[in-house]
Amino acid sequence: MNYIVFDLEFNMFFKFKEGEYANPALKSEIIQIGAVKLNEHFETIGIFDLIIKPVIYKRINPYVKKKTTINTRQVSQGTPFVQAIESFSQWLGEDSVLCSWGHDDILGLRDNCLFFGVDTISFNKYINIQQIYMNQGGLTMQPSLESAVEGLGIEKTSPFHDAFSDAFYTSEIFKKVFDLSGKSIINWEKEQIENELKIRELKAVLDQAPILCPQCSRIIEKDKEITKAKKYFAFGYCTECKLQIRHVSRIVHGGGEYCITSQNSIYKMEDFGGLEGRTN
Ligand SMILES: [Zn+2]
Question: Are residues 30 and 160 in the same domain?
Answer without folding.
Answer: yes
